[in-house]
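Before relying on records like the one below, remember that each one covers exactly one chain. Contacts with other chains, cofactors or solvent are not represented anywhere in the record.
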Amino acid sequence: SAGNDDDDGHKEGTNRSARRSEQGQDQWCGPFSVARQMIAKREEARRKREQEQEKDEMHHPLDEMMEEVEMEKKRKAHPSLQWRGQVHTTGSEGSTGQPASQLSFYAKRRKRVESQTKKIKVPSLFQTCVDFVVSNFEYVEALGDVDSTIRRTICEELVAKHKFNGAAFDAIAETGIEALEVIDCVE
């Protein structure tokens, strides 16, 4: 009779598991089974929600355009919807007016990267002198004892600023100059 009880208990247990699997509700208590149950419930809820939306919404080809027109009307009625704050960083303070020590790590890092990429290049004394001569070249009558590399640099700057003309050529190509390198100034 003990064997019959085991058979009955075994049959009853298999019937219970069969009923649960038919219902789709395995009630295991492990973390993976709980996660699987949660995912199944979420998928079922999503499926129901999508079916309801398909029933409720009738799509018209102009619906999107109408929504866009309504948003445009809202923007015209309320210009503050378009407002965007401007970020001004001055000195050691950030855009929020907080000292740099209280800014987030990301903001500090971004500020450091920006400062490294935007290095201010101070022109050399030579470049400053060449720029001054080129900007006032209409007053130059002769260059005198100037090396050919400096003459070439002045010539390049004159061409870049569209100031290279016949008078400038005469000033650069003085008598006594053996060789003069002139760049293409067709452009």
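Residues 33 and 39 are 10 Å apart (CA to CA).
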